[in-house]
Amino acid sequence: MSQPSYAPLRAGAAADIHDASTSSPETLTVSTVAAAAVGAVGHHLLKVEGYSRLKRMHGGTGSSYIKSGEFTAGGHAWRIQCYLNGEHEEEAGHVSLYVFPAVAPAGIVHAEFEVELLHHHGAAAPWPFRGRVRAVRFRAGRKWGYPKFIAVKDLERRFLRDDCFGIRCSVTVVEERAAAEEDVTAEDMDRVGVVCPCKDGSCQFKHERPAETLWEKIALICRFICGEASS
Questions:
Q1: Residue 38, pLDDT above cutoff 60
Q2: Which parts of the sequence belong to the MATH domain (predicted)?
């Protein structure tokens, strides 16, 4: 790439800078990339009944777990997975709680989910006995959740009633969507620092404003010099 060259301004050129800036319209185009929810949000209630027996059956650390039935969200099937005494040795004494695809997806599925313990009257428990995970990547064999969702002693003392407790889960599948070029709005112009002269809110693609920053003024001088040289 060749180095830029500069030439001295002709007499009176500096006085023409403002006029040149207002006569050089700027072009702004807009496109949008957004994370949008796919399909309906999936809601599921896992009722755990006969907790004492299930604890004896699945209470060994990492030995086995209980899981919910399938429920659908965003065109995919999901399950809740619950280890009643932790999935690993370091999580012993805690309930490990996860969400995973019931059917292995062909590729990556992005989803966010919320899990929460329910009080006996049906109301959700406050933090820290509820958790929300934002837009994570699920794939075949991958699960997300909380290795230490709640201590077993807290579960049995605060949420167990008639040897039962409940877990509510909501899953939202999201995907990235890119929109085609859109009409420019006054808000778009303001975000990039371009003064919008439109009065009715229907902006045009070309707007004018004077050079404001040092680099804009330098660029304007360069354009002016190049214009003079080409003429």
A1: yes
A2: 41-171
